From TrEMBL, chains A, B, C:
Residues 166-243 form the S-adenosyl-l-methionine hydroxide adenosyltransferase C-terminal domain. Residues 8-147 form the S-adenosyl-l-methionine hydroxide adenosyltransferase N-terminal domain. Keywords: S-adenosyl-L-methionine. InterPro entries: SAM_HAT_C (IPR046470), SAM_HAT_N (IPR046469), SAM_OH_AdoTrfase (IPR002747), SAM_OH_AdoTrfase_C_sf (IPR023227), SAM_OH_AdoTrfase_N_sf (IPR023228). It comes from Thiocapsa marina 5811. This is SAM-dependent chlorinase/fluorinase. Coiled coil: none annotated. Pfam families: SAM_HAT_C, SAM_HAT_N. It comes from the Bacteria. Belongs to the SAM hydrolase / SAM-dependent halogenase family.
Length: 250, 250, 250
């Protein structure tokens, strides 16, 4: 066949256990040979409101042409629908629970549809494997998803703000990613976190070991870090905790 | 070659560290291009008695035609043998320590053989890389494993019960999978756990946030969960802890 | 094309989160279809001094012909350079911070070069994705890395000892790998750890459950383990903690 192979990229809060393996096996049987990329599986569990703000940053520098399957889905089994969005030369399949809302909002020309196709067999609690992964396989194979256009203002989360002044992800080193776009904030400003005011630095080496600072991370987000230390422990912050505002130095 | 490519599926308690990478690299050198699926690597460490009851559920909805390499092997380096089982259109390679016993027992038409082939070089402590993965590669390539039929009643674990009334796996969200088949139990019954009696629900959305319940999970097992919470913490249960029995409501 | 496909092998302290996914996606777009092996991503965070002693052991039994991308890089964004080493029929790309020093030192015929090529766009904090992975893709495609020979004695870490009498890695089971080569030590000796003197055993089954011992692990390193238990907890040791010396029994 001459269709170019599109990578399937997985974005979940499933952890590295059995759920991802089941999704990969299902994809492997429906789309033999298609590359599947595990982009992230340790999104904060259940926290659609945080994951939604990390997603646009994560894909900023990713290759085009991919099909993303995004599953943070605490309402699985309930009445929420499924979405198919088009943004930045990629497709995104996800539950209609806000997960794609900031991405669609911040991407010029993005569009969104409601998925009308359902699989013949659907478990009550694992739509990632049973619905969204097969939908991605159908999309990749050029099959119909019975999708109908949706006005973005009707998506769940369409009223969410364009930035989120909170920790949205803690990496393995204890660095704290926020839902703030670095491009919107000035490096002469301090970032208030509790009763501290953190200075900006360009990179870890510019501050003393043990010192906390904020910087623009490799995804374009405001991130709080500590040179050779753990920001999450030093500042006692976890996913969902508020940060900011930015202030001018005295 | 015209032989269809069979996925190699890995099932271990190795965690995501160096052992899986070594197995994958070995497979990649012996079977270039064959797809390797990481089904699960966070089985409870050393607990063959629990993993054995999760395995049949994990593969229930997996694609056929795969070769499973299953390694939970606390007795590595000792005299235990290696098995090759055939069940549900798939092959299973594993130590003879009970890991395949419930699968063979619960699968009609399953058969089992003892592997007689050994590699030229075999470390004392890493048979997953040095013996079982190369055996899978040989099987995939149609080479001989010097296997001899074994009466299933001679497998280690052949006398284990068909269900296990205990927690066999805790997922990332704190949900508690048990070794009980949901199809064998009635949804009008309560599941006793300590001094609680948990009601049945079809899915998370059917109970109040914070409430514990039991349900049939996407693998056909009885699972204990809490809507928007962690069942492992609320009920203080870990892998190996007993659950049950089922009781009738008053 | 007729060039044989070389696997790209990833060795990092990134954990299983978003950084590895970004590297894999970048590699997938630059080298479609090339196999990428996750060898290890849970090296002790920031600890180049430990990872450097694990690396030669990890690759000892790996297939030849691979390109390793090794990233433990606490100085990212600073002035440290990038290295391309050749050892045991494989290529190694890494920061010049000591990570490759013991490997080059212990491998006969190893050579090392300084990478002169830089990508057009380079983030300050993610050289694994932006510099080292693309360099591996260029190398695989036969493109120039503008590499200039380097005298191994000029590498950072060239003065480090050939062994490291410390815990360099703790696996999921609590086993403690050290930076000591088992081939250099005699199995009649005891290994002192704090006020204990651990005996040698060939494998776990040779000691009583709960008993600590040292043995040659499947990578050729001295490893401290406990039969059916966790050595890290029993001995209260973590990565970086000193072990040894070896002593003769009385």
């Amino acid at each position: 066949m001459t269709r170019p192979i599109q990578p399937i990229v997985l974005v979940t809060d499933f952890g590295e256990g059995i759920y991802v393996g089941q999704m990969r096996a299902r994809l492997g049987s429906l789309l033999p040979g298609a590359p599947v990329v595990d982009l992230v599986h340790d999104l904060p569990a259940f926290r659609v409101d945080l994951a939604a703000y990390l997603l646009p940053a994560l894909i900023r520098d990713m290759p085009g042409g991919a099909i993303y399957v995004c599953v943070v889905d605490p309402g699985v089994g309930g009445p929420r629908g499924g979405l198919l969005a088009r943004a930045r030369d990629c497709w995104f399949i996800a539950p209609d629970n806000g997960l794609l809302a900031p991405l669609v909002r911040c991407t010029e020309g993005a569009s969104v549809q409601r998925i009308g196709w359902y699989p013949a067999a659907l478990s009550a609690s694992f739509h990632g494997r049973d619905w969204f992964a097969p939908a991605a396989a159908r999309l990749s194979a050029g099959k119909d998803l019975q999708a109908t256009p949706l006005d973005p203002s009707e998506m769940v989360g369409s009223d969410w703000p364009s930035e989120r002044a909170a920790v949205v992800y803690v990496d393995r080193f204890g660095n704290l990613m926020t839902g703030l776009h670095a491009a919107n904030h000035c490096s002469t400003q301090l970032l208030r976190v509790g009763n501290r005011a953190l200075p900006h630095a360009r990179t870890f080496c510019e501050v003393m070991p043990g010192e906390a600072f904020w910087y623009e991370n490799a995804f374009g987000l405001v991130e709080i870090a500590v040179n050779q230390g753990r920001a999450d422990r030093l500042l006692a912050l976890s996913p969902g905790d508020a940060v900011g505002p930015f202030t001018r130095p005295n």
